[in-house]
């Protein structure tokens, strides 16, 4: 399908199989719906999304892409799972969300086509699913304008994340389908920050995301040991 692209076909197949479930608030993607307001407000607080040109890399069904468009940004969502993009498109139509478009293209290909054209790049919960995450980080850096912001979120590689993000979330609490995340593909915050810096992106903020199984709520925290988000900025 995408022979030359930086993509793991098994990963894409996993997401394509679940594509019809993207907007089921109680389905497999429930955690993404639950964290969405948190990450949206965090991003908006740092960049004010109104009237920004935004690209969302690995947008899936468009949960974040649509929300950013509703904040007034012009959003392009890209992914390599065509099925998910069709679901995203249909949802945007049904919800009458303006200013959002979707395209089946890899981050690297888009970066070659539209370098330095976006004020904001988001790449959320995606790096842990690609064979060469560094290459995606480089592409994100290439896509953003000088002075623009790139946001990443992913899962730390630590004993605690193995316990909570894999065993806990997939096997005990059943928050995520089993096999969603593979330990060795996880990336530490320091590794991601180093990789971002090597691409010309300076770390501006790091946040953790915690899940409280008692009230079943997520919150942004200072603890990046399991789920975390990084805000980076390209030099002006
Ligand atoms: N960013 C979205 C979806 C996260 S799920 C959100 O946070 O709401 C991970 C997404 O990454 C899936 O939609 C999957 O299809 C996509 N993905 C996996 N490998 C990819 C690749 N190589 N290029 C682009 N997207 C990819």
Describe it.
There is one protein chain. Helix 2 runs parallel beside helix 3, helix 5 packs parallel to helix 6 and helix 6 packs across helix 8. An eight-stranded mixed beta sheet has the order 3-2-1-4-5-8-6-7. The longest helix has 18 residues. It starts with 8 loop residues before the first helix and ends with a strand. The radius of gyration is 16 Å and the shape is globular. The protein is an alpha/beta fold and 236 residues long. It has one domain: Vaccinia Virus protein VP39 (Rossmann fold), CATH 3.40.50. The model has no long low-confidence stretch (mean pLDDT 94). Strand 4, helix 6 and strand 5 form a beta-alpha-beta unit. Bound molecules: S-adenosyl-L-homocysteine. The site of S-adenosyl-L-homocysteine has 21 residues, from helix 1 and helix 3.
In short:
The protein is α/β, with parallel strands linked by helices and 236 residues long. The protein has eight helices and eight strands; from the N terminus they run ααβαβαβαβαβααβββ.
Give descriptors for this structure.
236 residues; alpha/beta; Rossmann fold; eight-stranded mixed β-sheet; 8 strands; 25% strand; binds S-adenosyl-L-homocysteine
């Amino acid at each position: 399908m995408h022979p030359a692209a930086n993509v793991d076909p098994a990963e894409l197949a996993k997401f394509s199989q679940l594509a019809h479930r993207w907007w089921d608030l109680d389905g497999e993607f429930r955690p993404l719906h639950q964290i969405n307001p948190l990450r949206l407000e965090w991003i908006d607080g740092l960049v004010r999304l109104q009237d920004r040109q935004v690209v969302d890399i690995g947008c899936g069904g468009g949960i974040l892409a649509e929300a950013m468009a509703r904040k007034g940004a012009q959003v392009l969502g890209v992914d390599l799972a065509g099925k998910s993009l069709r679901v995203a498109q249909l949802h945007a139509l049904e919800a009458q969300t303006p200013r959002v478009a979707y395209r089946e293209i890899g981050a690297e290909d888009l970066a070659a086509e539209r370098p330095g054209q976006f004020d904001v790049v988001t790449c959320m919960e995606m790096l842990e699913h690609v064979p060469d995450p560094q290459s995606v980080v480089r592409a994100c850096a290439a896509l953003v304008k000088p002075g623009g912001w790139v946001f990443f979120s992913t899962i730390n590689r630590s004993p605690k994340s193995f316990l909570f993000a894999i065993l806990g979330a997939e096997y005990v609490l059943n928050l995520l389908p089993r096999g969603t995340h593979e330990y060795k593909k996880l990336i530490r915050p320091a590794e991601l920050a180093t990789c971002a810096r090597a691409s010309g992106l300076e770390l501006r903020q790091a946040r953790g995301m915690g899940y409280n199984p008692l009230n079943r709520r997520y919150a942004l925290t200072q603890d990046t040991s399991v789920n975390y988000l990084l805000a980076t900025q390209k030099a002006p």
